[in-house]
Q: What sequence folds into this?
């Protein structure tokens, strides 16, 4: 069977490089969570791995998509289905590269050209690029399966698997970055910012905490009011004892580690631990009788990090919504 064009060794090498970079980046991002959870890495190491894992993932995606466009087929006649899938793969690869370029431009444009960057949503652009890139991977695999025997495209699967691994490596770091840009840089949320519930029993357990147990003050309260105005005290038309029992039961169902449950004081303290990284957020709930029922105040504070990426507000919002049901 006549060759259409022989792939150059350099292109085949670049395809393998894309796969290797994607694999190493994905592996680094994957293991840093358990490493932090078990004390083998600190928060600085997590940030560095996420940063360079995202860089490596994006590089693998760009390189893999570009190489997949340059690698020729071994034969001119790959069959109608394979040629159609090849065309679909190339179209998606071009679109994915364009999306990645737009994301980089939008991110850099926040500093270089903020007026122009304001018209581009980085989260939407990177989502578009990721969808197109994964579609290119899928079409490329299907094209390889549908192609006639002996008409393959050497190196294509290595390049496309590099794209897939690169997307996997960059997904979590980029999602955290985009989330951080949409929420305030605070890590302590309370339903009562004027008189937030205080940590008592948890103070002795916060030896590994970078953030002190005291409420950070007016700035945090102002940002919370701006971004999370719905975080407010809850009044239930139930006696305090019944509310206390319900709150304690739901806290245990949520998987929180209960540290203190003082019925007489109307105070519950607990710690929520994330599954993968083992990040610890401390929670205190204050229950007090009020006119017409029982008032419940809740506070959730991260032990580490300047921004909680909205986790504490989401925890309070979900918990209080469950109590109202």
A:
């Amino acid at each position: 069977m006549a060759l259409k064009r022989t792939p150059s060794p350099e292109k085949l090498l670049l395809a393998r490089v894309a796969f290797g970079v994607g694999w190493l980046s994905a592996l680094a991002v994957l293991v840093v969570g358990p490493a932090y959870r078990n004390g083998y890495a600190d928060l600085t190491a997590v940030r560095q791995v996420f940063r360079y894992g995202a860089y490596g993932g994006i590089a693998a995606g760009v390189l893999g998509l570009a190489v997949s466009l340059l690698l020729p087929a071994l034969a001119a006649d790959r069959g109608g289905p394979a040629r159609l899938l090849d065309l679909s793969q190339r179209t998606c690869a071009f679109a994915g590269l364009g999306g990645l370029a737009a994301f980089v431009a939008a991110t850099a444009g926040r500093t270089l050209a903020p007026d122009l960057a304001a018209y581009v949503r980085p989260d939407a652009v990177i989502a578009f690029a990721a969808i197109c890139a994964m579609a290119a991977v899928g079409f490329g695999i299907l094209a390889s399966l549908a192609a006639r025997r002996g008409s393959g495209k050497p190196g294509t699967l290595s390049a496309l698997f590099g794209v897939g691994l690169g997307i996997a490596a960059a997904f979590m770091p980029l999602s955290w970055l985009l989330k951080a840009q949409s929420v305030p840089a605070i890590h302590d949320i309370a339903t009562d910012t004027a008189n937030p519930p205080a940590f008592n029993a948890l103070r002795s357990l916060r030896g590994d905490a970078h953030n002190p147990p005291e409420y950070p003050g007016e700035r945090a309260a102002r940002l919370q009011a701006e971004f999370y105005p719905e975080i407010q005290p809850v009044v239930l038309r139930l006696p305090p004892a019944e509310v206390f029992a319900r709150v304690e039961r739901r806290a245990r169902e949520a998987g929180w580690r209960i540290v203190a449950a003082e019925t007489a004081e109307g105070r519950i303290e607990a710690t929520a631990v994330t599954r993968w990284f083992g990040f610890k957020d401390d929670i205190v709930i204050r229950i007090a009788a009020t006119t017409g029922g029982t008032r419940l105040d809740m506070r959730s504070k991260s032990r580490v990090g300047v921004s909680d990426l909205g986790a504490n507000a989401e925890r309070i919002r979900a918990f209080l919504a469950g109590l109202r049901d």
